[in-house]
Write a structure and sequence with these properties.
With 252 residues, the chain is mostly helical. The chain has twelve helices and no strands.
């Protein structure tokens, strides 16, 4: 790794080094090895990400639905009960989703404990509120179901859903309390941003200047066009490689 982004750009200009936005950015943080190492890790994560598209959109939608499944489950059972409909199918749908929700809470709890999940007081509260909807699903199933044997099965599932929500809420609350009430970084990039933000103003300005000169050299040499150079010069500190990765994905 070179001792400045400017030196790296000159090496690219002469053809000695192929352009890597990650390496260019890391070179600018030569005086801060911890941040440099963190940049290497976060930028490596970018290349392991699946490209955006319909599949990733559906995955995001599914994750969002799972997060509010206690509310959805309670709504399904209550609506079917008020309509006087047979509850076998509604309970099967609500219960199957509840099982998926329980699994998601267990996975989330493990990630929270390992420091790999986004944790905040708000998320802890939302999981606490989900307990109430789980209890509502239990009550609605007990009141509306005509099959006591089947009702007991789904009531057990909904109780487990409520308990899993409570466990997640407690796990998150404990972690938030240990962090002094602040949101806990969910990713390596969040931690990187905090480290960069902690730099002295003079250090930040020096890094920005180094990157700006490097980008100008690359543009003058025709390695990148001037529009790309302008965007790169305006990238947030620590976010240059991420920005250029997003640009490359959007141009596909």
């Amino acid at each position: 790794m070179m001792d400045s982004a400017l030196a790296y750009a000159r090496s690219v200009q002469t053809g000695d080094t192929p352009l890597s936005w990650s390496d260019l950015e890391r070179s600018a943080f030569h005086a801060h090895p911890d941040i440099q190492e963190s940049l290497g890790q976060t930028n490596a994560d970018l290349h392991s990400r699946p490209a955006g598209g319909l599949a990733s959109g559906l995955l995001a939608l599914g994750a969002g639905v799972i997060e509010i499944w206690p509310l959805i489950a309670a709504g399904i059972v209550l609506t079917a009960g008020r309509l006087g409909a047979d509850l076998d199918v509604p309970l099967a749908v609500a219960g199957t989703g509840a099982i998926g929700y329980i699994v998601s809470r267990v996975i989330l709890d493990v990630r929270v404990v390992r420091g790999q999940a986004d944790v905040s007081a708000t998320r802890a509260l939302l999981n606490g509120v989900a307990v109430l909807f789980g209890a509502l699903a239990v009550w609605a199933t007990t009141i509306a179901s005509r099959d006591s044997g089947l009702a007991r099965v789904w009531v057990t599932v909904f109780v487990a859903m409520a308990v899993s929500s409570a466990a997640t809420a407690v796990t998150m609350a404990v972690r938030v309390r240990r962090s002094g009430g602040a949101s806990v970084p969910a990713t390596r990039f969040d931690e990187l941003r905090r480290a960069v933000d902690a730099l002295a103003p003079g250090e930040k300005e020096s890094i920005r200047s180094d990157l700006a000169q490097a980008v100008d050299i690359l543009a003058d040499a025709g390695v990148i066009d001037h529009d790309e150079a302008a965007d790169a010069a305006n990238a947030p500190l620590g976010g240059l490689a991420r920005q250029e990765w997003a640009r490359s994905q959007s141009s596909r």
